[in-house]
Amino acid sequence: MKCPLVFGVLFLHLALCWGQPPDRNDLFEKLNASQNDSTKAVLLNTIARTYARENKDSAIYYFNLATRKSQEIDEKELEVNSLNFIGMTYAIWGDFDSAEKSLLEALKACEAYQLDSVKHQTYFGLANVVESKGDLNKALKYYLVALKYFEKTQAHKSINRTKANISYIYMKTGDLEKAYSFIKESNRYYRESGADRQLMNGYSRLGAWFSQMNKPDSAILYHNNALLLAENLKDDLSKYEIKINLANTLYQSRKFDQAAGYYKDIISYSEKSGGNPGSMLNACSSISVCYLMMNEPRNATIYIKKGLEILPSVSEQKNIIDYYHKMFLVDSLTGDYRNAIINYQKHINLKDSLFNIEKHEQLAELETEYETEKITNQRNLAEERALLAETKSRQNLILFIGSLIVVLLIIISAIFYFSKLKQAKKAEMVALQLRESQRRLALEKQYRDSELKALKAQMNPHFIFNVLNSIQEFIILNQKDLASDYLAMFADLIRGYLHYSSLGHIPLADEIESISQYLELEKLRFGESMSFEVDFDSKLNTEAIKIPTMIIQPYVENAIKHGLFSKKGDKKLSVDFRSSDEETIICTITDNGVGRAKASELKQHSPAKYKSFATEANASRLELFNQTTYKKIGVETEDLTDENGPSGTRVIITIPSIKK
Questions:
Q1: In the chain, what are the helix, strand and coil shares in percent, each to the nearest 5?
Q2: Of 309, 320, 7, 11, which Cα lies nearest the Cα of 146?
Q3: Per-residue model confidence (pLDDT) at position 15
Q4: What is d(CA 362, CA 500) in angstroms, rounded to the nearest whole number?
Q5: Radius of gyration, alpha carbons of the chain
C-alpha cells in the first residue's frame, strides 16, 4: 500500500513537471528580450517550474517575482496561478505548513477576484496538502468541492484524478464500499484513455483494497497487474514501491517463498539506489521470517545480520522494534536463548517507549504470530523457554522500576521539604538583617540630622552677632537714620532667615533674594566704596529649582570679611548663578579684595585672632550633606592676579539641584 505522501503529492509532481521541461537558458533569453509584461509573468512562472524539483529556494524566488509582476499589471489569474505553484513547490519539498498557507492565500484571492475557473484547482491542491499532513476529513471536504466543479465543467481527467485520491481517503477512514466504487470508476477511465501510469496507481489501490478486505489472492493479482505496467513504463521507483506492497501481501498470505523473492529485489534496489533505510531494514527482517517459516534459519540469520548493519542509519521506531522482534525469533529457534532474551528485552523496551496504541497492536501481532506459526516440538520448546525467561525478566524489571520510583519519590519529597525549611530560615534571616539595617540607618540619619541642625543653629547666631555689631556701631556713632534703616532691613532678613533655617531646601529665587538683602546691609555699612552685583541665567527657573538652605551666604560673608574689608578703594563683589546641566547649578562668587595670601598675613598681625566660625561650620555642614546623598556639593577657590599682583578671589560652588 502506498504511503499518504506518495498519493498526496503525486498531482503536484504532475502539475509542475508535465512533459519535457523547456530549456532554461532559452527561457531567460526570451525573458530579457520580452517587452510585454504579461509575457514576462508567464515566463517567470515557467522558469520557476523548471527549478521546482531541483532547487526550492530558486523556484520560490521566481514564483514570487511572477506574483509581483502579475499584481503590477493586474493579471489576477496569473497571480493566483503563481500562488498555487508556490504552494505546490513547498509540498514537493515536504514543507506542508508553508504549502497550505500559500494555497489558502490563493483561495482567498480567488474569492476576492471571483475566479471560479482557478478556484477548483486551488481546492484540489489544498486537499493534497492537508491529506499529506494527515487531516483526512479536511482533505475529503476539499476534494469533494473540487470534484463538484470538475463534474460541472466535464473535466474528465480532473474528475478521475480527484476520484482516485478520494478513494484512498475512504480506504484510510474504513469506508471500503465507497472507496471501491471510486477506484473502479477512475480505473475504467484510465484504461479507456490509455493512461497507463494512472492505471498502474489504480491497480495498486485495488490491491490495497483487497488486502483490507482479507482477499489476498485478488490483491496479489492487481499488484501483479500494476507491476507489469511499471515494467512497461520502465519506472524503477514505481516497481520498487509495488514490490513492497506485493511482498507484504504475499507475506500476510503466508506465501513465504514468493515473498522472499520480492524482498530480495527490494533489498537489491535499495542498495543500488540508496533507498529508505527503514524500508530496507523492514525487508531484511521480513525475509528472515520467511526463511524461518521455510525452515532455513541460516539464511534468516544472514539477513538479520545485514539488518544489523543498516540499523544505525534507521530513525523509524517501528522498523527498529520489528527488527529486534525478528532477531528474538531467530535466536530462539537456533537455541541462542541468552541473546534471545537480550533482543526481546530491547524489543519490549522500545515498544514501552511509544505513547500510542501501536505498542498494543504490536504485542497482539507478536501473540498472533506465535499462535499461527507451525513449527516442530523443539522450536515450540525453545520458544516457551524464551518466553518464560522474558516473563521473569520483565517481572523483575517491573519490580525494580517500581521500587526505584518509590525511592525516588521519597528522595524528591525529602529534598523538597528540607529545601522549603532552608528557604524559610533564609527568608527569616534576611528579614532580621533587613530590620537591623533599617534600624541602624534610621539611627544614623537621626544622628546626622541632629548634627546638621546643631551646625545650622550655631551658624545662625554667628550671623546675627555680626549684624548686631554693625547696628551697635551706627548707634555709637549717633547715625540714627542709618541705624534705623539698617535695623529694618535686618529685621526683614532675619524674618526670612528664621523661616528658611527650618527647611532643608529652598527655591533658588529665595536664596538670591536673601543674598541680595545681606549684601544691601553690608553696603550700608561700607558706604559708596562697595558695590555688588547678583546675576543669574535667564534660562533658570529660579522658582522651580531648589538648593540646600543658606549654602551660599557663608562664602559671600567670607569674601567681605577677609577679602574686601582690608582693601582700600573701590570694593566689588559679584555673585553669579549658571546651569551646567539640568541637575547642577554653578554659583561663582568673585571679589576684588586683597586675596587669600594677604588676608592670612593681616590675620597673623591682628591682635585679636579672629576665627572664621561660619567657614568651619559650613565646611562641616557640607561634609555631612555629602555623606547623606550621592550628589555632592563641590567648592573650588581660585586666586585672581593682574600685573600688580593679587587682584581678588573667585569661589566656584557646584550645587546639585532638585525640582519641585
A1: 75, 10, 15
A2: 11
A3: 42
A4: 93
A5: 51
CA distance 312 to 309: 7
Which alpha helices (DSSP H) does 477-501 contain, by range? Answer: 480-500
Instruction: In whole angstroms, give the CA distance from residue 234 to residue 240.
Output: 11
As given in the structure block, the three cell numbers for residue 507 are 527655591
The cell 524482498 sits on which residue?
Answer: 263
Cell of 56: 526550492
* CA 527/CA 531 separation, integer angstroms: 9
Give the CA-trace dihedral at 84, 87, 92, 93, to 10 degrees.
150
Give residue 295's region: left, alpha or beta (phi > 0; psi -120 to 50).
left
CA angle 319, 322, 325 (to 5 degrees): 155
DSSP label of 529: G
CA-based nearest residue to 171, from 161, 162, 182: 182
State pLDDT tens for residues 450-490: 445 544 544 456 556 766 777 777 788 777 777 787 788 78
Determine how many CB atoms are found less than 10 A away from the CB of residue 261.
Answer: 15
User: Please, which pLDDT band fits residue 587 given cuts at 50, 70 and 90?
Assistant: very high
DSSP readout, 557-568?
HHIIIIIITT--
Cα 124 to Cα 148: distance, rounded to the nearest angstrom = 11
pLDDT band at 565 (very low <50, low <70, confident <90, very high): confident
Q: Give the position of cell 598675613.
A: 601
Q: Which residues are CB-contacts of 260 (< 8 A; sequence separation ≥ 6)?
A: 287, 290, 291, 294
Handedness of CA 280, 285, 286, 292 (dihedral sign): positive
| Type of residue at 89 | T
pTM (2 decimals)?
0.46
Q: Are 534 and 575 in contact (CB under 8 A)?
A: yes
Decide the pairing of beta strands 530-536 and 645-656: unpaired
| CA dist., res. 117 & res. 125, Å (int) | 14
326 band by pLDDT with thresholds 50, 70 and 90: confident
Return the sign of the alpha-carbon dihedral for residues 301, 303, 306, 308.
negative
- pLDDT value of position 574: 93
What three-state secondary structure class fits 635? strand
CA distance 188 to 205: 13
Q: How far apart are CA 238 and CA 234, in angstroms?
A: 9
Return the sign of the alpha-carbon dihedral for residues 359, 364, 368, 371: positive
Q: Which helix (H) or strand (E) holds 632?
A: none
C-alpha distances out from residue 82 to 30, 96, 103, 201, Å: 19, 17, 10, 28
Kindly report the backbone phi and psi dihedral angles of residue 647, in degrees, each rounded to the nearest multiple of 5, phi listed first: -125, 10
Residue-wise pLDDT for 140-179, tens only, equals 998 998 888 888 888 888 888 888 889 988 988 888 898 8
Tell me if residue 401 falls in helix, strand or coil: helix
- DSSP 8-state code for residue 607: S
d(CA 308, CA 602): 109
